[in-house]
Design brief:
With 146 residues, the protein is mainly alpha-helical. The chain is built from five helices and no strands. Helix content is 47%, strand content 0%. Helix 4 packs across helix 5.
Length: 146
């Protein structure tokens, strides 16, 4: 699933900046294949993090936060040389937002305000600490020689 389109990048960061980043051979024409590649990379990075809590592909809909994250990640990928602090900050912010979604600290919401349901999680059972009862009242601990 693609979370952002070329038009989203151009609208968010300006057609001039994106055009310059896409014109690697300085012939005055953008390489749209490269743009599609960085957008696909951004979508793959998003899916890799969301797969922990959400069934993929996500239900059809408009996801403004994922669009913003995809744009920031794709923009950073377009820079071959050093990127500005603004671009670095956007990429860090995008990764932090993805981490919050994947870690369950944030909720994924569609543009219509509806939250996306997380996949049911299997509860983790922690190993017991110390002596363990065997169910018949024996709480002996072999490590202590009892």
């Amino acid at each position: 699933m693609s979370y952002a389109a070329a038009a989203d990048l151009r609208a968010r960061f300006g057609a001039d900046e994106i055009g310059q980043l896409l014109d690697q051979d300085a012939d005055g024409r953008p390489d749209d294949g490269r743009l599609e590649a960085v957008l696909a990379d951004a979508a793959a990075a998003i899916d890799a993090r969301l797969a922990r809590l959400y069934d993929l592909p996500l239900p059809e809909g408009d996801y403004p936060l994922l669009r913003a994250i995809a744009c920031d990640l794709a923009r950073a990928r377009l820079y071959d040389d050093e990127m500005s602090d603004t671009v670095k900050h956007g990429a860090r912010r995008a990764r932090a937002q993805l981490g919050a979604l994947a870690g369950g600290q944030a909720v994924l919401v569609r543009a219509d305000g509806k939250a996306v349901r997380r996949r049911a999680q299997t509860p983790r059972i922690a190993a017991p600490q110390g002596p363990v009862a065997d169910g018949f009242g024996d709480t002996s601990c072999p490590e202590r020689g009892r």
